[in-house]
Write a structure and sequence with these properties.
Mean pLDDT: 86
Membrane topology: Multi-pass membrane protein
Radius of gyration: 22 Å
CATH class of one domain: Mainly Alpha
Family: Belongs to the purine-cytosine permease (2.A.39) family.
Subcellular location: Membrane
GO molecular function: cytosine transmembrane transporter activity
Shape: globular
Order of helices and strands: HHHHHHHHHHHHHHHHHHEHHE
Largest sheet: 2 strands, antiparallel
Main location: membrane
Structural class: mainly alpha
CATH architecture of one domain: Orthogonal Bundle
């Protein structure tokens, strides 16, 4: 057995479709990325015309000062959640689906987590792809379904090869997007008094602060919960904080507040034409590339969830690259035929189910600390624990209660309500000793070995 293990460790890497990206293992320290590469990945998540539109929508119904307060509230909430969960992902080198095996849910519970995350993210991939196709069709002509197919194939091809190539794409797209947007906005606002825009009353119906904060924080809460998918490639905890905070500052205070000013200027939330009309065909291309850069994370996170789900439920070790092809094809097909837009209500429902996962992770990892001990013992060796809890029934009950609070309680921010409920319940019940695992499952042997070979393309190694 020992000789077999040594042989497996020294065997040449198998040929496969794309990169498995440590879907069922820790990301080794020597395969993680430097500060600037990771920073551009984070900033790329801020580079979206939709964030300008959100800012303009809020600006139509709020004064500049009230909008600033709403964005501050949303940014602080998101940053606390991202840092608390993302730091756990960085320390362990694990994505959210794998992390939950030892942090709150157990092996079988992690399959449920993976299923919810995978369905939600691949669903939003399809929805965003539909929006992408419709936008390109309106701008340059041609049938929407054709552009859906083009975009779906391009994003799938990028995600197949994993984090390394997604990071490279971010290095190209992010500077271009913000340089182009800066030019467009400065050109537009140059002929208007900035002071007058800041002091002007909201041109539309007043939006309450709670509603605005809900739109800001709730809209990205799912992304915050799955932040370990990105932070597991970080080298230092300080990097997680600085990079995520930089993304929040850029997304909320710069992009969002500029959107508020544009909303006051045109007295409408329809401000995307300002950027597109002043930047020409090049601007259109950059905007479309930035949209694709954001949507690639939906497909990437979904692929990680499916890999964990299949290993737990069916005992099958799927290659992440192969899973990406299947999910990308399904999402692209459904978006091309126009079906995905009919599922947005269902996807929004799943969106309320995901925040409690984050509350339980934070409570177990940073407060209760009853189940994470095996991770502590194996972290230095960069291996996984040989066993994990099988079920944690109380966690599933907390998850259900928190979901009901987020879904049916009308006050506050639904996503935050469900997350806070899960966090508080788990802390109280966990410290009282009521959150107990039942059963012990041996770690699947193939979690320690390379992913199964697929065909033709050599798996790229992680970037240093």
């Amino acid at each position: 057995m020992a000789s077999d293990s040594r042989a497996a460790a020294t065997a040449p890497e198998a040929k496969s479709i794309g990169s498995d990206d440590y879907a069922l293992s820790r990301v080794p320290r020597d395969k993680r990325f430097g500060f600037w590469s990771m920073l551009l990945q984070w900033l790329a998540q801020s580079g979206s015309i939709s964030q300008f539109t959100l800012g303009a929508t809020i600006g139509v119904g709020m004064t500049f000062g009230d909008a600033f307060l709403a964005f501050t509230l949303g940014a602080v909430i998101l940053e606390i959640v991202i840092f608390a969960i993302g730091l756990a992902g960085m320390r362990e080198g694990l994505a959210t689906p794998m992390l939950t095996r030892w942090v709150g849910f157990g092996r079988n519970g992690s399959a449920l987590v993976s299923f919810v995350i995978a369905v939600s993210l691949v669903g939003w991939f399809g929805v965003q792809n539909t929006i992408f196709g419709d936008s390109v069709s309106a701008l340059v002509g041609g049938p929407s379904w054709m552009w859906c197919v083009v975009a779906g194939i391009a994003i799938t091809a990028l995600v197949i090869f994993g984090f390394r190539y997604m990071a490279l794409f971010a290095k190209i797209v992010t500077p271009l997007f913000f340089a182009m947007v800066a030019w467009s906005v400065i050109t537009t606002l140059n002929d208007h008094s900035l002071g007058d825009l800041i002091s002007s009353p909201p041109p539309g119906e007043t939006i309450p602060l709670a509603v605005a904060a809900t739109a800001i924080a709730g809209g990205y809460m799912t992304g915050a919960i799955v932040s370990p998918e990105m932070t597991r490639y970080n080298r230092k905890g300080a990097h997680v904080f600085v990079q995520s905070a930089s993304s929040m500052i850029l997304s909320e205070y710069i992009v969002g507040m500029v959107g508020v000013l544009l909303g006051h200027l045109v007295k409408s939330s329809e401000v995307s034409h300002i950027v597109l009309s002043t930047s020409g065909a090049f601007g259109v291309i950059v905007v479309l590339m930035s949209t694709a850069k954001i949507n690639d994370w939906n497909l990437y996170g979904s692929s990680l969830g499916v890999v964990n789900f299949f290993q737990v439920v069916f005992g099958k070790r799927l290659h992440r690259g192969v899973v990406t092809v299947a999910l990308g094809a399904a999402g692209t097909l459904l978006s091309a035929v126009g079906i995905m837009t009919h599922f947005t209500e269902f996807l929004s429902l799943l969106g309320v189910m995901i925040p409690p996962i984050g509350g339980i992770i934070v409570a177990e990892y940073w407060v209760v600390k009853r189940m994470r001990r095996p991770l502590d013992e194996t972290r230095e060796a960069e291996t996984l624990p040989r066993t994990s809890p099988t079920w944690v029934p109380m966690s599933l009950a907390i998850w259900l209660v928190a979901f009901c609070v987020g879904k049916f309680y009308d006050g506050g921010i639904p996503a935050l309500n469900s997350l806070a409920t899960a966090f508080l319940l788990y802390c109280v019940l966990g410290l009282l000793g009521w959150v107990r695992p039942y059963g012990t499952s041996a770690l699947d042997d193939d979690a320690h070995t390379p992913a199964p070979a697929a065909a033709h393309v050599t798996t790229p190694t992680g970037a240093a």
